[in-house]
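Moderator note: this is an archived Q&A kept for reference. The question asked for a predicted structure of one protein chain; the sequence and the answer are reproduced below.
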Amino acid sequence: MLLFMVLSFLWVLCYRFINPPITRLQLSRESSSGLKIQQQWIQYDAMGDNIKMAVLCGEDQQFKMHNGFDFKAISKARALNANGNSIRGASTISQQTAKNVFLWEGRSWLRKGMEVWFTLLIEVMWGKERILEVYLNVIEMGPVESKNQTSPVFGCEAASHFYFHKSCKNLSMAQAAKIASVLPCPKKCGFGSRFAYSRQKIIVRHMRRWGRQLLP
């Protein structure tokens, strides 16, 4: 246990300064699709504010305030799941980053416990800007459609070029919100789906109302 704690501490510390070369999810998508992923790393300051605000409004509006866990959302999710329903948003951006960068796919108590540990580490050692930077570079933002030769798309810069043929720093509010709208289900919710369109309108409304207040 002590060895694991020391190694995980050093691993997280390295990624504070070194960009993660690839994640297990990215390797899985390449293996399942037979295609190389599309990804282009971009620094935090070069992203532009619209994509940051869109993702924060759509995924984690408490990101700047919480310590890695949104306990109110977790309690709400448990209550709805107890009634046979489900909710999106109980997992924070910090948790999603920890899961994507350091862990594997699947659900188990072991993986969940390790997710808590790595979330605490990145909150303490990285800070909010680094967490959001890594998240926006490693999160899945595009479909896996090998029959149409569509490569898996990861990160906001690759997604911006894929969908709008421009850098993410030049995205409008509506364009940034459209990319953020597919994050809940990038493989199943098509970019032009009714779900994405409806979610885009909600995100744009939130961006205009309090988007800049959410930026770390």
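Archived answer notes: The CA atoms of residues 35 and 81 lie 36 Å apart.
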